[in-house]
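Practice set, problem 2.
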Amino acid sequence: MAALALFVRSGGRIDIWVTLASGYGLLLVLAQIRLLPLYLRLAFAPSLWALTFPWAAVATTALRWITGYEPPGHRVYTYLVLAAVSALIGGIAVWSIVAAARGRFLPPAAPPAAA
């Protein structure tokens, strides 16, 4: 989010602050990718939706970089980023629907406390 805010502040230009914030964001992305096998073993919980906002921000930042530099094949990179973030959010949506259909979307209610 910081990189996106800095992109807006700089008028869409890539300056040192955007580069620093994006580099730190890339470090965090690498840490999250390393944890992906652990995430895939988790049982469904509605809190998984919390992953969608930061990953959408990461995708938006990547798209800003791609459009800022327009490297060779930039359209392919754009489609890959959009496909990846769509697959993540769509996967969580499907997982939510399946959990709701099985009655496991929310955890069971706690038993009432003894008086």
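Problem 2, part (b): a different protein.
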Amino acid sequence: MLPYEIPSYAVAAGARVCKALLGAQLVITLIMISVIQKLGPHFSFARWLLCSTGLIRYLYPTDSELRHLANIPKDKSKSKKNTKTQTNGKNSSDTFHIPRSLDVKLETAKVTKLDVIHLRYYTEYQWLVDFSLYALLVYIATEIYQTWFPLKDEVNLSMIWCSLVILFAIKILLGLTVQYFQGEESVGERSTCVVMGFIYLLISMMVLIVDEKTLEVELESAYNSFNQSASTFLTKQGLSSTGPASKIVLKFFIAVWCGVLGALFTFPGLRIARMHWDLIKKQVETIILWIKPVSRNYLTVRIFSGRTEPLLTDHSFDSIRLIAIAVTMCLKVLLMPWYLQAYLDMAYQRAEDQKREAGRITNIEFQKKIAAVFYYLCVVALQYIAPVVLCFYLGIMYKTLGEYSWIGFFKETPNIEECPINSGTDSPDIELFKTSETETETSATDFHLALENLKMIFTASVYRGLFGFSTWWCCFAYFAATSIGLIYQSYFSSV
């Protein structure tokens, strides 16, 4: 063997690890990274949603237009004074009062790229939407690849992309909510977030004690599977263990997470509260699909007159539930420009509502009232799209890691094992690795064993409980926040 020749066992060890971790998925990931680098600066789906869908913004009237409409002559002495203050670096705005009932006609303009790139949170909005699209393309390519070449020992890299999307969406929602806790003028917003957080905490506690024969979140089976797998694993390592934390403690932390997530969804729900009632009904249908007596039992157990079998099989019902989530969230994305235009129309509505008020208002206050609507466009877009992205990608991870199928009508989903850890010795391949004594092979073996042990602990049953409940709760919180916002807009917004 030549001095520079790599030992065959080291090559085998490295190849085994690369095959287990990456495989052809690495090619898909590298291609998508190249697409992001080359295509990203030239095309942005997020920018297209704002600038190429015909959104119209309202322009606030200038001081000269307001003076002309209110018949206010320009004060030359005041103008000179303002010019002097501008030299000293102070506010040089020529402030004057106009009647609130002044008939002001707002001019309109199409939203362009130059208009939005300077808006607050535009970068976060663009990155979230564009990265979500790239992650979806990676997921679709991986699903197509998996159709012909099932992933056995490989790590599903598309799940890492989806996890990054979920983390980024939560980070953005958290950042937007933190803004309501800053400043002295946000007392009402802070109180609303805290109160709604405790309300969702209480609701989640009640949900977690509901029998799974009624609400099919599969947390009980997930806990039992993880408890058994973890105990078996620790026992094989020579460690004494009674299993993970108690069920009550775990459910308490889950309830706290639910309360925080509900608080994060509060103001996005209030923002999009003017949405059409048909879309709310769609969200209701998605939530009901987890309530067992009125969904699964009704469609997969009950036999109607004139039939010899239920309408659907369990696998078909699982596929319908996943497809319902995907279709509902995709529909919300498609209708996003209409909702954003409805938000931009608030500027016109504010001007019209002010005409029915008595008294006077300064030109600066009136201009700020109109300009603020467009200034917060990207904030509103994030509050609209972030919950949608979160629900959609949690549903994707629920499907993939829970080993469900999009085509359960035609293909049976294999049953999952509660604890797949073998009680016997390691597999022949692992034993072969253990007999090698080189440092390279030992490192590769340890890494491979760690990965395999992780897979054995976090089984499909665990993922079904974790992501099943997370997906349902996000859909429920989204629906509840939107419904509360709709009630508020209908009965209290005019007060």
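Answer key, part (b): The radius of gyration is 29 Å. The chain has one domain: 8-75+97-491.
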